């Protein structure tokens, strides 16, 4: 079966292609349109489809729209209720539902040749659940927990996978929503709602949860697999912050309190689910599953032996989950994800042609990994553009900014390069077989979805990647999956004695992660980055901006 998955209704529009149970391609529309998150999550934008991502997925597999057996759309308008009946203040939600009902015809227009009868409406949280339970490795029998802002009429789903079957166990009806509560706080703290929730998580590390008793009056588990989460009087807890105003200790404390009550509630939900299933593996999906601090507490204190989080856990992942669910329903055995590198890539020859067209002076060293390691050892910043781009919000060694972790000033330096707030941390990448001696937490951790305590003996050695609370959100690198990245890490350790490199996303604040070569050249040209490693080519900042013939060559 050839199944195209589509996420479009709320935010992070994306497309994914599953053929005979195997994920062939997946990409977010933002990487093509260059609009962060693809669009704002407003009813007026609900008609917008991931047209470019869908067309690319089909092109990757050599398919036409008429070749598809089904299209999975990750929202079922038949399950929805009017917003006011669910206690939500969203007077234009009916427009969103109208657009959802018309999705088959919109898709026929976006993908000429597509039969609208092939479109299947997939319940939103079932798509989330399938993206975790079916994509996880070694998880033929597992529990799955989904939490986000909202779906058709709920904000949560507890379910269980047994073989090819996915069984719902419990859902929490709106307006109670842990995701919406966190979104409200994001907006109260002056950040962009449905976009900047990760900033609240980062800010929480700078505060103390002194407001937790008050928050527990509004956010708490109900003991039956559900929860209460609504009506938090944020303005009574602290004054709102304007987008351009400095944060105060009160802002950090309310963030810490919200983070703590979220973790408490999640742990109760996890324990309830385990009591029903007695599984050893828990998979997580939904936007709340991108909260790596909460994930780590679930792994540390929860009853499951292993916790796996889908790397595109937000709404983008429902494109994949919807396709996997329809595929499994048709009898195809779902294959687990082998990595998040499911997006676009270019051959060495194609990259060389891009550089030649742009008249960019470059080198083609014997081993780009060695060249990068030497630049990093000399405290240079490297833009790393290699292989297929990542699906999901994390840079995982394909579209990354790299730096030396041994210089504490590189945290401020990278945040300046990216134009980010200084309270935000950067992350380390480390070879999988070296991680345990430096970082204490769930291992392996290939998708940067957990935080780890940094061993005291290493905190002064890699200060740039140690957050204010002594943790780091790590990526472990498997040499079999990412041999070029592993070779760079080994060479960097040989030069510096440090098996860790700083890794943050290759973008600047408010812009999507770099995806194609043009994006890479624009980002490199506009940011104080020392080296662009694009495929086998090295572009040096000094050579790019030097006048006259500096002895460099244009790729050919």
TrEMBL record:
Q: Where in this chain does the record put each Carbamoyltransferase domain?
A: 2-324
Q: What GO molecular function terms would the record report?
A: catalytic activity
Q: Where is the Carbamoyltransferase C-terminal domain?
A: 373-541
Q: What does the sequence similarity comment in the record state about its family?
A: Belongs to the NodU/CmcH family.
* PANTHER family according to UniProt: NODULATION PROTEIN U
The identity of this protein, by name, is Carbamoyltransferase
Q: Which organism is it from?
A: Actinospica acidiphila
């Amino acid at each position: 079966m050839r199944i195209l998955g589509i996420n479009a209704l709320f935010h992070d529009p994306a497309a994914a292609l599953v053929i005979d149970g195997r994920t062939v391609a997946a990409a977010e529309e933002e990487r093509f349109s260059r609009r962060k998150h693809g669009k704002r999550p407003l009813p007026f934008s609900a008609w917008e489809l991931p047209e470019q991502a869908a067309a690319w997925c089909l092109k990757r597999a050599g398919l036409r729209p008429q070749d598809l057996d089904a299209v999975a759309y990750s929202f079922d308008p038949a399950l929805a209720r009017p917003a006011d009946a669910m206690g939500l203040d969203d007077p234009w939600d009916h427009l969103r539902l109208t657009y959802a009902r018309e999705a088959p015809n919109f898709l026929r227009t976006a993908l000429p040749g597509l039969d609208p009868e092939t479109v299947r409406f997939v319940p939103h949280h079932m798509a989330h659940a399938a993206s975790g339970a079916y994509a996880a490795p070694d998880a033929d029998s597992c529990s799955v927990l989904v939490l986000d802002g909202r779906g058709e009429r709920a904000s949560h789903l507890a379910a269980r996978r047994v073989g090819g079957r996915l069984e719902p166990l419990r859902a929490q009806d709106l307006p109670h929503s842990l995701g919406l509560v966190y979104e409200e706080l994001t907006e109260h703290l002056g950040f962009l709602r449905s976009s900047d929730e990760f900033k609240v998580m980062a800010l929480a590390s700078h505060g103390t949860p002194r407001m937790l008793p008050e928050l527990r009056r509004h956010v708490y588990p109900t003991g039956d697999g559900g929860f209460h989460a609504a009506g938090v009087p944020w303005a009574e807890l602290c004054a709102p912050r304007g987008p351009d105003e400095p944060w105060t200790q009160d802002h950090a404390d309310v963030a810490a309190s919200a983070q703590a009550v979220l973790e408490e509630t999640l742990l109760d939900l996890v324990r309830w689910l385990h009591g029903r299933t007695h599984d050893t593996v828990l998979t997580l999906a939904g936007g709340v599953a991108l909260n790596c601090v909460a994930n780590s507490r679930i792994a540390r204190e929860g009853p499951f032996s292993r916790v796996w989080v889908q790397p595109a856990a937000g709404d983008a992942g429902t494109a994949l989950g919807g396709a996997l669910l329809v595929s499994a329903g048709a009898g195809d055995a779902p294959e687990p994800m082998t990595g998040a590198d499911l997006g676009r890539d270019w051959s060495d020859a194609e990259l060389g042609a891009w550089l030649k067209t742009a008249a960019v002076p470059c080198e083609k060293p014997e081993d780009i990994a060695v060249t990068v390691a030497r630049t990093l050892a000399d405290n240079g910043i490297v833009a790393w553009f290699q292989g297929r781009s990542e699906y999901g919000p994390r840079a995982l060694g394909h579209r990354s900014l790299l730096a030396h972790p041994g210089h504490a000033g590189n945290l401020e330096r990278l945040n300046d390069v990216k134009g980010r707030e200084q309270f935000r941390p950067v992350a380390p990448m480390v070879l999988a077989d070296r991680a345990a001696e430096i970082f204490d937490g769930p291992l392996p951790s290939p998708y940067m979805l957990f935080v780890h305590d940094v061993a005291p003996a290493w905190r002064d050695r890699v200060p740039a990647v140690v957050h204010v609370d002594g943790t780091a959100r790590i990526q472990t690198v498997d040499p079999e999956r990412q041999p070029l990245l592993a070779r760079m890490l080994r060479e960097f350790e040989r030069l510096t004695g440090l098996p860790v490199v700083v890794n943050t996303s290759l973008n600047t604040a408010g812009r999507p992660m770099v995806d194609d070569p043009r994006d890479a050249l624009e980002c490199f040209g506009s940011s104080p980055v020392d080296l662009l490693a694009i495929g086998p080519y090295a572009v040096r900042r000094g050579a790019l901006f030097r006048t006259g013939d500096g002895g460099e060559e244009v790729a050919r």
